[in-house]
Design a protein that fits this description.
With 334 residues, this protein is α/β, with parallel strands linked by helices. It has two domains: 179 residues, Medium-chain alcohol dehydrogenases, catalytic domain (Quinone Oxidoreductase, Chain A, domain 1, Alpha-Beta Complex); 128 residues, NAD(P)-binding Rossmann-like Domain (Rossmann fold). Helices cover 25% and strands 29% of the residues. It has nine helices and 19 strands. The strands form five sheets. Strands 3, 6, 7, 10, 11, 18 and 19 form a seven-stranded mixed beta sheet that branches. A six-stranded parallel beta sheet has the order 14-13-12-15-16-17, with helices on both faces. The chain has a two-stranded antiparallel ribbon with strand order 1-2. A hairpin with a 2-residue loop joins strand 1 and strand 2. Helix 3 crosses helix 4 and helix 3 packs across helix 8. It is globular, with a radius of gyration of 20 Å. The chain starts with a strand and ends with a strand.
Length: 334
Amino acid sequence: MKTLAIHGAEDIRWEDREVPQPGPGEVRLRVSFVGICGSDLHYYFHGANGEYTIREPLTPGHELSGVVDLDPSGRLAPGTPVTVHPARYGADVAGLEDRPHLRPGGDYLGSAAADPHRQGGASEYLLVEDHMIRVLPSSLPLERAALAEPLAVALHAVNLAGSIADKRVLVIGAGPIGLLVVAAARHAGADVIGASDVLFEPLERARSLGATELFTVGTDAIDDESFDVVLECSGVAPALTQAVRAARRAGTVVQVGMLRNADIPVNLAPLLAKELTIRGAFRFSTEIDDAVALLAASDELDPVISHVIPAADAVAAFELARDSSASAKVLLAL
């Protein structure tokens, strides 16, 4: 079989590997589509994602869809369309019963956090544990189903904000996750959705998904205390400062974008006088099931997928995926 492997910064190879054989409790999938996300871009362009450095060839990819190839248990027939919850959780921890994704010691497809690395889905064939599989409704095409994992991230972030029905919501950063957060906020009943980005093209995509107030960074001012909830999706320090300023008194800020693992200059002074709630958002728990249902019900999120490129052309695909003026979500076709 063929698989993608990142050997270091800007060194990705389309390699031959043996087809893996499933063990007890495992299912072999024939992968169809894999989305390129921010962590994949960091691994490819920098050889590391935050503090996690590539120490052995890493197959990227945790946003995927495909079909069952072999299920030794006989529970799933060959050809069954599926997506995958990419997490394996750590041991039970008191106080985290309803948040298994926060337990230490788990792992995630396509991650260099563990040693050996947890290999990802950008491979023709993939072994996963049977509890990770989500069977797709017949109304959900495989291409769209590759959005299930990032949409689950967006739904989780919006859920962390509490009820946003009839509220003014600002989404900072209109990359793929920001776009899906816009869609999730609209689905949750937000009255007004603002979107902010440094580029025109992502903002136009946000408009198509339900954003009604658009702000170009450096050109359009966002009034202080003008939004009930702010979801920061860019992961840059000035944006968190902007989020704190834009949130109304007693409002909520959800940090969705991955911040640098470093001391960063952020002005949190307004936090005190406004008694803001700031919450971090980390992946998701069960929201992938909600994401699958939402994707099956409508094609309204199809515009988030801007390009589908053969995995053998991964270098071009990664270059395109990091250019947010030219692309939204880029999928690799396997």
